[in-house]
User: Fold GntR family transcriptional regulator from Vagococcus zengguangii.
Amino acid sequence: MKAEEKVRLYIKQNIASQKFLPNMKLVEEDIAKELNISRSPVRAALKKLEKENVVRLIPNKGAYITPKQLSTKEFVDRMQMFELLLIHTLVGMEQWEYQFPADSVVFFESFNDKKEIDSQELNELQSTFFDFQKNAYLTDSFKTIIKEVLVYSETSSQFSLRELAILFTQLFLSLFEKVQTHQYAAARKQVRVFVNAISLDVIDNQEIHEEKYLF
Assistant:
């Protein structure tokens, strides 16, 4: 097997096994060392993988794993899973009569006046919301769903990544307030309305309108 093809298979296998994750940077020198080859076939393989939309080559920055683009059906499926997991979390909060600790309250309130939200801040926000369960699998599942949904927005004409990140942030802030005041039925209804509205907008190829999301 030629060295170039060996590199292509190596990268694809690591993507399939999730060792190489979306947006992860690939270092030519590390791959060459791992496969005991020179950097030239690594560079050639990366160029071919870019044509296959497996990696992105960014000038002066390097090669990055291309995030998987969701179809409309996959987007809706992710949102339905998001709804199920979030409602499950809210039911648990109600059963345990959960109250957010003081430092979490301060953290949530710090978002009230923010006009811009990046994906890292959104990750921290949702991690704080789900912290009471101490369930790493649940938290990671939410992070994966939201990350994939945000990636969808990068190729969508309906909404931008910024708009979608703000919508998710507004949802979590509103749910936080409802949990603090024990309005669990209203919180669950809000999740259903949010997921239904955004899913229909994607299916019907409509632009988002915040008033439909019941914030």
User: Anything to note?
Assistant: The longest strand covers residues 55-58.
